[in-house]
Amino acid sequence: MQMTWRWYGINNDDITLDHIRQIPGVTGIVWSLHDKVAGEVWEEDRIKETMDHIRSKGFNGDVVESVNIHDDIKLGNENRDKHIDIYIDTIRKLAKAGVKVICYNFMPVFDWTRTNLYQELEDGSNALYYEKKLVEGINPKAIADLILGGAGGKTMPGWEPERLGKLEELFECYKDVDEDTLFENLRYFLERIIPVCEEVDVKMAIHPDDPPWPIFGLPRIIRSRDHIRRFLDLVDSPYNGLTLCTGSLGPNKANDIPAIIREFGDRIHFAHIRNVRIYENGDFIEVSHRAKDGNVDTVEVVKVYHEMGFKGYIRPDHGRHLWGEEKNCRPGYGLYDRAMGIMYMLGVWDLLDKQKEEEQR
Ligand code: CS2
Ligand code: MN
Fold first, then answer.
1. Percent of the chain scoring above 90 in pLDDT
2. DSSP string covering 63-132, please?
3. How many domains does the chain have?
4. Which of 159, 181, 190, 320 has a 20 to 30 A CA-CA distance from 349?
5. What's the domain range around 147?
6. What is the pTM of this model?
7. Domain CATH for 35
8. Does the keyword Oxidoreductase apply (predicted)?
9. What atom of ligand 1 comes closest to residue 105's alpha carbon?
């Protein structure tokens, strides 16, 4: 297992690499060019600048999260080949710079969706919250305003105002896209990019849908064991793999996450660990990484990775906002709770290492 940290880039994150160096056990930085909208060309010098900066602080920059997919590819329209060519160009450039894993998602229109970015928990901290009824009863434009308004001007990946400005148009384009069509469009994309990934040794790692159910009538296809099986079978190559995010799969109680990790372990290149607490009415809130605080058995999750000898990259996913840090940090991406999450995961991991050593003696 290689512990990593998601960082938003040079001059784009209050949490610097010098801060991150002080968190025990972190060897890699998960990065992206966050100013790039889906479909934009990534320049080699920008990639190199970031990689050099990351390496100069003693980290690897092996994982990029995310290179986003243009809606024309998800829609499967006549412009898709042009956008796939640009995507392939980025894969090649990232490979050349030493990148090993690319995380992406295939959610139509919206990336992660929440109704309150700062819901207070009983201990006075706050965290991202999803109110099921509210999403069922409101239109997509209102949810976008709610999220962007709540973020108070902070930029957030997945919620780029440029794209959200065209919501109505986008929804119109998706009106005939159902689950099967979306799977076919994903297959088309993978059939073109995976041979390149095999050639240049970059593993693709799709991120599950968050929340793991369809919203606003849009299909969502990476959200359960069966959907993941279907996805992996689209192109049966180790280069067609997963980002296994426990926080995204977690809000659906039917998802047996330890079982999913066991079943698809050899195709998991990147592990996101997050805990969520699910309420009776289907709402959920993000909580600390501690197993007891939510519905995801994070101890069992780490144990399963340990048992399988997981060699891939792992990171704490979203954390709560603590000690007033929500004033500055990106929602879900403060320093303190994610750092504590790392220590929790490493505590479990180190204990299991020790037990194994003792058994072997
Ligand atoms: C998610 C996503 O892991 C996360 O933070 O909430 O924003 C994720 O980064 C993307 O869906 C991956 O493409
Ligand atoms: Mn995640």
1. 90
2. EEE--PPPHHHHHT-TTHHHHHHHHHHHHHHHHHHT--EEEEE--SS-SS--SEEEEEPTTS-EEEEE-H
3. 1
4. 320
5. 2-360
6. 0.97
7. 3.20.20.150
8. no
9. 13
